[in-house]
Amino acid sequence: MTGPRTAVRRTVRGRARNAAIAAFVVLAATVPAAAGAAGTQEVDAALPYTCLFPSGQQPATVKVSAAFPERVAPGEAIEPSDVTTTVELPEPAVADLTALGASAVRAATRLSVGVAQGEATAEATWRGGTEPTQLSATGPLTLTATGDVPSVTGQSAGELTMTAGGFALDLALTTTDGGSTDPASVTVDCTLADEAPGGGRLATVQVGTDEEGPAGTPSGSSSGSPSASGTPGDPTDEPAERQGERAPEVVEPAPDGPAAERKAPPCKYDEKYPAGPMSLNAYITGYSNVTKLDGAALVPPFCTLITQGEPEFEFFPDFSGAYIRQHSTADLYYRQRKETLPFQATFLTFDFTPTTATMVLEQTGPMTIDSNGTTDFLFTSTDTYVRAPVVLRVTSLKVNGTPLDVGAKCRTRTSLVSPEPDPEKFPGDHLVLHGRGEQVTGEPATGYLLLSGGPLTGEIAIPAFTGCGTAGGENLDRLLTASVSGPGNYVKMVQGQACYVWAEEPNPDECTPDRQPLETPVAER
User: Fold this and answer.
1) What is the pLDDT of residue 263?
2) How far is CA 95 from the centre of its chain?
3) CA distance 320 to 277
4) What is the DSSP string of 473-490?
């Protein structure tokens, strides 16, 4: 995801500045993004396991999906994102659980992941958790776990691999009346089957350039360390203790740190924004293209607080159906501000220079949601348009660890702009997203509906930038504008199931006990 280089002299300072601009471009799609200039690889592996249940060994399938960078700089952390572990247990395994008197189960998962660079190795544990799942009398059981996982940092250049190993399930069992079984929990240990594709290999990430050897030495050097291709040299060339010093570093995610916020920031009403009888809240995430960089950027989940409007019906002359109209309003909300949470990400740009950017998306006016459709009382179809005036604010940039001062007022001159299907009724600059939903009475909806969520798509133009730089320092407005601004950036967002917060008792299928959205949606391309 790199744009055209400007015709300037290739000084060291110029390369660093252009690298910072390019890194910012990657983030500037709609909200802070998680896909860097080096690209993102998506993993979707189905691995066979053998699991030991009370009645004996049973086969199980563990599906692992995640996103990894294709390449990082030496010393830069590799942070797997969008990690989901889905376990498919066969019917005999479910029978073991129901035999204990269980009617529902909640699982905590532990996947051992081997990390290797040549002969230097380490081990990470990917932990996840599921929502309570009802057990059926017959049939298999599928459990889907999500959670933040450790970051991994290679200590030298060369290929770094991550490979699935042992897997374990900690199953908390409950009875029909909400009590605990005896025993209250069961731990199931699973072993990767010999026929697992690729031996369980999940991902390979290039650390450094293809031409570099370990610690920046040329790949043809005789150091005895792994080369850029990841092939180890003669193990006798290097003492074992030196290999241990080069072991990849594994860092567990902080429970309340940036990783937790990135997964799902708080989304609840408070004294500054109190709930009302028509109040909903929901998470939204997705991808946005950046045309100038010929790539897509991941939009992390953010919170929206919604005031649902009363539906209006206009019946057909023969009363065989009706037109439906509904006007609702919404706000971004993070720490009592109408904005997204700050999001920090590190990218590799020209010459593989690591660049870190922090950004915020700010709402500058009313956000509206207009739904129009028809129904014959058996089938309903609806078109929904979400309109939001939002500017993109840059709070900080670092190039190879060195701050590039953008000042306190660096942002787009106006809101992100979309083509407006009804400009006379909705003038001004704003983002427009469209979703179409259909529903047969009594069946789940397909597509997008305000309550159940779904995909929303649109196209944005990124305006020119202003206020980027400091008094007496460099004015970065023109560089940012030349590198980032322009039309034709496709956006696809996914809204999760909305939570109706005004109910006397929140719906456990939609809301957490403290009335936050239960569902954190998964981005779709």
Assistant:
1) 60
2) 35
3) 31
4) S-B-HHHHHHHH-EEEEE
User: Can you give the three-state secondary structure of 310-363, one letter per residue?
Assistant: CCEEEECCCCCCEEEEEEEEEEECECCECECCCEEEEEECHHHCEEEEEEEEEE
How many residues are present in the chain?
525
| HSE-CB of 73 using CA atoms within 13 angstroms | 18
**Tens of pLDDT along 388-433?**
999 988 777 665 666 767 788 889 999 999 999 999 999 999 999 9
Burial 139-175 (b: 16+ CB within 10 A, else e): eebebebbbbbbbbbbbbbbbbbbbbebbebebbbbe
Q: Supply φ then ψ for residue 78, to 5 degrees.
A: -95, 115
- Based on its alpha-carbon atoms, the radius of gyration of the chain, rounded to whole angstroms, reads 26
Angle in degrees, CA 26, 488, 28, rounded to 5: 20
The values of phi and psi at residue 349, to 5°, are -125, -150
Torsion, Cα of 416, 422, 423, 428 (10° steps): -40
The answer to whether the CB of 382 falls within 8 A of the CB of 373 is: yes
Alpha-carbon span 178 to 181, nearest angstrom: 9
The H-assigned helical ranges of 348-428 are none
CB 491 within 8 A of CB 474: no
* pLDDT at site 82: 81
Burial class (CB in 10 A: 0-12, 13-18, 19+), 70: middle
Chain segment 429-472, per-residue pLDDT in tens: 999 999 999 989 888 888 999 999 999 999 999 899 898 887 77
